[in-house]
């Protein structure tokens, strides 16, 4: 996707549209660590965001920044060594982190479903796609669907995502990569969830198929009024399909706000740098700013702002005190001490 | 599918001829000459030449090889030295069903036990139970089989008296029996065969049912009719029943012993395969779908872990056949294995090599069966070959 | 044998000798020193991983204990309590401890059969014994006593010496079989992977066949045709198991090395095929070979015992022979009364085989990271 489309898609949710709406999904002060032999890895630190009903939200960041950990926490599917040390995940008024295992199991897919990264391997190779979709329906539908009901629903979903319904009885290896991913989307919709999480939904697909899948997801969100959380390292993808976005760095949410606003004027130095380091075809020509250094070791995160070792606008306080998320415009929050120094335009040397 | 089986059959035939030639050259390579071994060393050379000619030992190695192979195909394996003048093929034909009986049941039990324990081990990794099951599994796997079989006899036959000490039947009971052991045994195999065919047929039919409730009904009809027919079969043969029971009673302990030494290999393999399967993305998908833990283990992870386990059957096969030879010998179960050993000890070369060749055929056929099973289990192979 | 085909095995040995040459130039250190240091580092890392594995550790302890048992024979025969050849030779020694019996008149009067015998039966040993006499009857097999800590066998030989003596030959057999297996498998696997084509095809079909064949029946027939002694058995097992599964696994390992860039680099810089195989492929396949050595020892120990038990081998003394002697004299079918004839030898075979198997499994987890804990 990188390099094809940089501007957020024009849509009715403009930068000024911030009127309050009850969030369907709310994450409050989430803290997650991984226990490893060497100590505790601080993977997610004090992350909060809210997703209004019928909207889409994107989390973007480098790999290892904690975005997938957030996604898995929403599903309560984190690895065995993950410890949720605090926070709430409120889905439609229910804190998912307080449910017991069995209650959570019944809510998965029925309330919150997921489109995984790597569609290739999301399908069990020994069952037909139809059987695997029906499995989800058998668990969550009440009463269980009959064979014909399940088939009718699957056909409807296949039509929706653009797969020939004849393919229901085929095995995953007979699907192409794009078709598998479409089928995964169909499966995610099979129990009419309130929220869908799409974790790198287009990674590992070729560019044209990526575009088709994103269009498909956009259409589903629009037509079904679905609320979707996107997780991606590809800022172009986020730009194209989300209403709101959050930028994560080293386990922390550093900037959050309407996608259009952030793309129009990134306020956090990290966001500014990643946008500056991405070339744009349609925008004005500009020099690309490099993002130097490596992401920090989360076993022992830097003091103060976690971005300070790589930040070009670093000041003294950044090294000692942690910035908190502050609202600088309605609905647009950042965590930075020195954001006023971040240039209005993207690159450092405009021509 | 048919093309796949056909291809496999051709490969197996080729392997079989390779094996048969190997057996022949083993015979050729033995020190000395068969005539020197069995004939009076003082007979004149011309007489010896006549005998050698009559025995087909006069031609070159290649003609002898050709004769051996063609004779084998026509079922002419020579005459037993020990049970003269019975033909080797006759001796072997009597033994094969008995070995198949022991082998099939032991393999079945070993695989079912090994697979279900292995998947549980992988599922609950770590902890005391895993270590203790693994250690006892390996001990059973490496146990000195003849010794283990003797201990089983000492405990369950001489000690507790639950089973006969050894043999195929109790001679006192059969002294005035109206049937021979083979007749009864063949009826037993027949009834089991019928039950197995009905069972697998209905299971296959049940798999093709879309509606869960219908599938369940068909499955129960399958269990019921297989069992029912088996029972009915033996109800109509009232006077043969006690004799059949006597044979079954003799078979239990050897089957249990062989299963015990063979299951651990499957268990360890299943564990390894499961551990890998559990890292796959589709397991995470299943968890996200809210599939209950037990179903994730059985329907998703174990079902995929079954594939490498079935492939490795080829390795387990050699192991279980070896174990079978020992088990048969220690329990005096008159099958191919004990035939092989007694013939070897008695220097009954035609029978020994014939038995070895047939054990090879048995191994190859089992291999073929596994290949077919694998194709049935793995849609990737099944479909690929159909197109 | 439990064999898993590794798709990609993380070989923890110095992988690229050419890199070592560069290291030599840079550091001014001789090549073998660098190599040794790298090997030592890899060994330390693997050793730490191995020590974490409790089952592997258990196996190692078992093997060490058997090593001590094997050492006990020459030491105790030379300087210890087993010096008397006439009594303690494991094959030709003879000592039947005696048991005193009181002679009573008739069988009905015997109240304790371990200390009393009727005059009639006693005539077999003590000619002319009359009721009231005390008669010494040689006892064989004799239960454990001070002189014979594990008792004597039906021929009056010391079971403990036999056990210790046989441990040595079990190790020797295992070593021969393991070395031959790995030698054959490494060569076959490397050649097959390296040359491909018809060489690969024919070698692998042969490997398929060998893999399919049950070893025990073949060895039974072979031992009927030839007199097989321990070293020959070791070689036979080595060839048969080396040509089968081990060769196939090592071949896939060699294949994964063949496609590594340093092979191309070496080829471009003019390395001959033999040089490539010897210098690059074989050293990288070796770590996996060690793993199979462990499994081969397990197999060899069990096979030898089984064949000896059936009396098919040309061997004077081994654990299998010990059981064979007890069995052929009818002491094994009567129950656990003569447990010292049944338990030590059988347990020794089982434990030594298990010890090597445990170590093999632990090594497998060290070499194949995918088997490690999640």
Question: What's the gist of this structure?
Answer:
The complex is a heterotrimer of chains A (351), B (387) and C (374). Chain B has helices at residues 2-29, 34-38, 45-54, 61-73, 88-123, 127-142, 145-159, 171-174, 181-207, 212-235, 241-277, 281-288, 293-311, 313-330, 336-345, 349-377, 379-386.
Verbal overview:
- The complex is a heterotrimer of chains A (351), B (387) and C (374).
- Chain A has 351 residues and is of the alpha/beta class.
- Chain A has helices at 67-75, 101-107, 129-140, 147-161, 177-189, 207-224, 235-241, 259-264, 269-276, 316-320, and strands at residues 23-36, 39-52, 56-60, 82-91, 94-95, 112-115, 195-199, 227-232, 244-249, 252-258, 326-329, 332-334.
- Chain A has an 8-stranded mixed β-sheet with strand order 6-7-8-3-9-10-12-11, with helices on both faces. Chain A has a 4-stranded antiparallel β-sheet with strand order 2-1-4-5, with helices on one face.
- In chain A, strand 4 (82-91) and strand 5 (94-95) form a beta hairpin.
- The two termini of chain A are 25 Å apart.
- Among the domains of chain B are: 95-168 and 239-346, MetI-like fold (Orthogonal Bundle), CATH 1.10.3720.10; 180-237.
- The radius of gyration of chain B is 25 Å and the shape is globular.
- Chain B starts with a helix and ends with a helix.
- Chain C contains 13 helices and 3 strands, in the order ααααββαβαααααααα.
- Chain C is elongated, with a radius of gyration of 27 Å.
Instruction: Give the radius of gyration of chain B.
Output: 25 Å
Tally of DSSP helical segments of chain B: 17
Radius of gyration of chain C: 27 Å
Low-confidence stretches of chain C at least 5 residues in length (pLDDT < 50)?
1-15
Number of domains of chain C: 2
| Assigned CATH class of the largest domain in chain C | Mainly Alpha
Please tell me what the overall shape of chain C is: elongated
Q: Give the largest interface.
A: B-C, 69 and 58 residues
Q: What is the overall silhouette of chain B?
A: globular
Biggest β-sheet description of chain B: none
Low-confidence runs of at least 5 consecutive residues of chain B: none
β-sheet strand percentage of chain C? under 5%
**CATH level-3 fold name of the largest domain in chain C:** MetI-like fold
Helix content of chain B: over 70%
Going by CATH, what is the homologous superfamily of the domain at 95-168 and 239-346 in chain B? MetI-like
